[in-house]
Amino acid sequence: MKIKPFDTTLIVEVEKTKDKTDGGIVLPSEMVSRDQMNVSEGVLVSCGSYAFSEVKQLDDAEYPKSGDKVFFKKHSGILYNDKETDKQYRFINDVDIYAFERKEVSNG
Predict the structure, then answer these.
(1) What is the DSSP letter of 98?
(2) pLDDT grade for 73, boundaries at 50, 70 and 90
């Protein structure tokens, strides 16, 4: 991804919202847009240079890093559709992250 976050902004990859039902019925665009903003979890792709700066000052504090699954406020940030990769991202502030799950590192 060529876009870089600024300040305390994060880029989170979210699951792309379906525009059809499993039965093949095309959903109205208003419903698809609403569903896109209802997503509240994703994978952290990139952090701005000051993201989590308050947490980083604490000696034993943990904070999310690229590759971690993050949970954030519904309707937060701005939705971005990358036409080159056909993926969806949300640009959100670090304070909108409520929790994270560390990506498991395999030793093999």
Answers:
(1) E
(2) confident
pLDDT given for residue 108 in this prediction: 55
Distance set, CA 98 to CA 55, 81, 90 (Å): 13, 24, 15
- How many other CB atoms are there within 10 angstroms of residue 23's CB atom? 5
Q: Are 70 and 64 in contact (CB under 8 A)?
A: yes
Q: What is the pLDDT of residues 1-40, one digit of tens each?
A: 688 999 999 999 998 767 777 888 877 777 666 666 677 8
Alpha-carbon distance of 104 to 95, in angstroms, equals 24
Q: Is 80 exceeded by the pLDDT of residue 84?
A: yes
Cα(27)–Cα(47) distance, rounded to whole angstroms? 33
CATH number, domain 9-101 = 2.30.33.40
The shares of helix, strand and coil residues in the chain, as percent rounded to the nearest 5, are: 15, 35, 50
